[in-house]
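Run log, item B.
One chain of 287 residues. Sequence copied directly from the ordering sheet:
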Amino acid sequence: MTRIGISGWRYTPWRGVFYPPDLTQARELEFASRAVRTIEINGSFYSLQRPQSYQAWYDATPGDFVFAHKGNRYITHILRLREPEKPLANVFASGVLLLREKLGPFLWQFPPNFKFDEDLFEHFLSLLPRDTEQASALASRHEPRMNGRCATETDAKRKLLHAVEIRNESFADPAFVRLLRKYKVALVVADTAGKWPDYEDVTASFMYLRLHGEKELYASGYTQQSLDRWAARIRTWASGHQPGDARLIVDSAPPKRASRDIYCYFDNDVKVHAPFDAQSLEQRLLG
């Protein structure tokens, strides 16, 4: 399964360009979720969301839609993974389990000045729930301040996926790849116009791509040639293989698989390229 989508959906410049001029803001997710097959929830990075929001997002989207969920920056950027237990419980108590079968991968993005610390990182990975029942149990241990604004129950046991986006060269360490493979966490393939590391080691049963802009971070679009290149790489990963020119931290090959799921998000939103690039890449993969 390959899903191509966008990172976030509420951007003022998109109105009248991607969104019809007469579309109300309240219906933007409804529109976007029928134009692409998956969307990253970005608001959860900046602050904990509320159960009512997750329920509304679930109700607004088609039955086969999938959300990726961006982890809260309080854990990754403020605490910098120190004593993350309660904040993690708060994330899973905030209502994310109300997305039910539409809940896709969790994205954990780290700042450029965050350096790899093997012990710290392994502790964090060991805490991440692997299914919704584990997530529900973790959510029940939330802080008292969450009382009255949380939803901790799951309607069914489902597998949970996690992906890590790094922005510091200290992660170019074989120990980092070993940890990701041990905990079956994906390394995000991040195209950042050359600003940050862009390694492509396969570390999990799925791939998670974030395309932030080909020439200018968050702003530039992708050329037809570049989209053709990304389509070819996605086909290779989806078939269980690895591109011959992949930029790798370690030489050891990943475990062989007949196929891999792919989640790919365009984050070049400033000049309204993201939704159109996502649709264009989707068409290439369907062709």
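Observations after the first pass:
- Strands lie at 2-7, 38-41, 66-70, 103-109, 162-165, 186-187, 189-191, 206-211, 261-266.
- The chain has a mean pLDDT of 96.
Flagged for discussion on Thursday.
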